[in-house]
Amino acid sequence: xxxxxxISESQSQPRAWPRVLLxxxxxxxxxxxLYAAYSKLYFDxxxxxxxxxxxxxxxxxxxxxxxxxxxxxxxxxxxxxxxxLGALLIVGIGLRWAGSITTALLLVFIGAMxxxxxxxxxxxxxxxxxxxxxxxxxxxxxSSLLVLALAVxxxxxxxxxxRAAVSS
Amino acid sequence: MKPLLISRIGILLLVSSFAAISGASxxxxxxxxxxxxxxxASVVTPSPDAKALGSKNAPITIEVFEDFQCPACRNxxxxxxxxxxxxxxxxxxxxxxxxxxxxxxxxxxxxxxxLANAAADLGQFEAIERALFDSQEQWSTxxxxxxxxxSSIPAPQMKKIxxxxxxxxxxxxxxxxxxxxxxxxxxxNQTPSIYVTSHGKTEALPGGGVDYxxxxxxLDFLLRQ
Lengths: 168, 225
Known about the structure:
The structure holds two protein chains of two kinds. Helices cover about 75% and strands about 0% of the residues of chain A. By secondary structure, chain A is mainly alpha-helical.
């Protein structure tokens, strides 16, 4: 009787480790996104808040995927968007949305990088600053980030669902 | 729970206000002026630096590490550098320096660089650079560079370049090696690699070449500073 009471109590309490893993995952991913934004705004030993978009536009344009008007627009907003996503992931607000958008963004990045690799474009990745050549290593790194983003997103949805189940 | 939520929202507001302020100030400074009317290609004043074009007193210096056999360098030269020469070097806004960075993967790039250096010492760098890139597809398959340049460099001129090269081969090789060493020091990892110096600051542009319109926007921004 006593044993069954202990078992049912432990079953009703959610385990802590999935939550800990989720926190670690989202903080790591958020920090990487913050660093990605930082490396686009601070390079060559100085902040480039007024001219970062020129350099980043050149990096995006080297992928030869988008018209220049879109390239220039993206170059202006993407570092700030990465900064916002990084902050959301670290803070944990709107985690399901932030995770989903991060996953989608990484899918787009990996798609663009794979296309460039297939086309044999000798370009810079543009991921973390200006001086990183696009190669297999960058593709593997971004794919690992995608796996992490996917895990964070799924984790966020599962925990939300569990909470809803417990409260109902 | 509430204080935690408030502190999270506080962090987000801080980040977004930083983004908004920086974005607004950046926008203020980047109005693109109308493209100046295309000027006819003209002869650029020979520079004290044999492999450079334009005035040393120009407010902007562009240094390009190139390999004459590299297709990306050819593309950058044909689609961007020619226009930079016409629109910025000729009017004295840009001092353009060529640096040799022949890659070992290209069998004829050293040969082309030697020819270009000999021509540069004879004050004909602009002509030979143009001719080398214009006919790259021809000579890069068989290494017959002089044959490919025959249509743009007259035979007597080519003979002068060839003779000069034979007589000064050690200096020429040393000049190429100096450029390469400089490139290695600057962490050049591909060609073309472009460095822009203005107001005492040097910035590396993303390697592999840059679209002319984007380069023009950046140069105009620097000139407005």
